[in-house]
Write a structure and sequence with these properties.
By secondary structure, the protein is α/β, with parallel strands linked by helices. The protein folds into two domains: 3-159 and 332-346, Rossmann fold (3-Layer(aba) Sandwich); 165-327, Rossmann fold. The chain is 43% helix and 16% strand. The protein contains 15 helices and 13 strands. The chain has helices spanning 12-25, 40-45, 70-88, 101-110, 126-131, 143-147, 168-175, 194-208, 239-245, 255-263, 280-290, 299-304, 307-318, 320-327, 335-346, and strands at residues 3-7, 30-35, 51-53, 92-95, 115-119, 137-140, 152-154, 183-187, 212-216, 230-233, 248-251, 268-270, 294-296. The strands form two sheets. The protein has a seven-stranded parallel β-sheet with strand order 3-2-1-4-5-6-7, sandwiched between helices. Strands 10-9-8-11-12-13 form a six-stranded parallel β-sheet, sandwiched between helices. Strand 12 (268-270), helix 11 and strand 13 (294-296) form a beta-alpha-beta unit. Helix 1 packs across helix 15 (335-346) and helix 7 packs across helix 9. 47% of the residues are buried.
Length: 347
């Protein structure tokens, strides 16, 4: 049986797409994973695959002394990855990006192991900018991204099959949702979003007049209790049920989340992360907005004119059917196309 080593991590956006592929490939191939110790990827992956740890180093975008340690941690991580790869002898490495993938990719290149990677965002992250030098193929979620890379292939985003089988009635019964109001889901990504949480908290009463509100706040961000129309939870391991129950969604601009909503034809308002990021969420949101798949509103626009928030939500409700129609022509699930690229590298 041929062997695939998966890598990538740091946030759910790097891990969930790998899980989508593992669901399809596990059993047909011997699949294992390399990630960082005590990480989100270890927590999510170790119950389903053998998991190996390597030293990792994340570049901080602000001035930080910890950045000075990067060359030393990277060298250690490469040595650890080489040792694992020599023992495991995989036929291909699949990288989903994130800082943890860099030592694994470099070690794989040194050992002449074929590498296939996937870039979720409209513009490439730092890890994949390094990876593209060594990879046989860089699969992309956005068509324009592939055109800008010599070894780029437009595949779309890998989508977990479980999101297609959400059970709305479970959420309706759990929270006693009304049958007379639409359901608004707010989710700020795998780590939550303080700015979005604060925005919803401030406007909760006004929103509750028109919607039943499901709010996934992120871990340790639960500040408000349930009311008749407002239902906050820290984390949902059955996100597919929440997706199924909602009519519209407010979210960040992380690629994994917005492509899952696109696959389910759920109209969305994207409020992209701006501060502390490289601007990838803003670019993702612009493409979705231009294609008619989402409405977009920046944090700066909300700060300058808070009424815009409600105007956009009203637009979202009004244009809901038009957006669903636009989504029907989108390439919403790239799982099989990515698998085809991995299998090409296995030959």
């Amino acid at each position: 049986m041929k062997k695939i080593i998966f890598t990538g991590g740091g946030t759910g956006g790097h891990i969930m797409p790998n899980i989508a592929l593992i669901e399809k490939l596990k059993g047909k191939y011997d699949c294992k994973y390399i990630g960082s110790k005590d990480s989100m990827e270890q927590k999510l992956i170790s119950p389903i695959l053998p998991f190996f740890e390597v030293e990792t180093c994340k570049l901080k975008r602000s001035l930080s002394l910890s950045n000075l340690l990067i060359p030393f941690k990277l060298a250690k991580g490469i040595c650890q990855a080489k040792k694992i790869l020599k023992k495991e002898r995989p036929d291909v490495i699949f990288s989903k990006g994130g800082f943890v993938s860099v030592p694994v990719v470099i070690a794989g290149h040194i050992l002449k192991i074929p590498i296939v990677a996937h870039e979720s965002d409209y513009s490439m992250g730092l890890a994949n900018k390094i990876t593209k030098r060594y990879a046989k193929t860089i699969c992309t979620s956005f068509e324009d991204t592939a055109k800008s890379i010599k070894n780029g292939v437009y595949t779309g985003s890998p989508i977990r099959q479980e999101i297609y089988v959400g059970y709305a009635q479970k959420i309706v019964r759990q929270f006693g949702l009304s049958s007379t109001k639409p359901t608004l889901l707010i989710v700020g990504g795998s780590l939550g979003s303080k700015n979005i949480n604060d925005l919803i908290e401030k406007n909760q009463d006004k929103l509750a007049k028109k919607f039943d509100i499901l709010h996934i706040t992120g871990k340790n961000n639960l500040t408000k209790s349930h009311t008749k129309a407002y239902h906050p939870v820290e984390f949902a391991d059955n996100i597919q049920d929440y997706f199924s129950a909602c009519d519209i969604c407010i979210t960040r601009g992380g690629s994994n989340m917005i492509f899952e909503l696109l696959a389910l034809k759920k109209p969305m308002l994207i409020i992209p992360l701006s501060k502390g990021s490289r601007g990838d969420q803003i670019e993702n949101a612009k493409v979705f907005s231009q294609n008619g798949w989402a409405k977009m509103l920046t944090e700066e626009e909300i700060a300058n004119n808070p009424s815009l928030f409600f105007e956009k939500i009203e637009e979202l409700q009004k244009d809901k059917q038009k957006m669903i129609f636009a989504m029907k022509s989108a390439n919403t699930d790239g799982t099989q196309k990515i698998i085809a690229e991995i299998e090409k590298a296995l030959k």
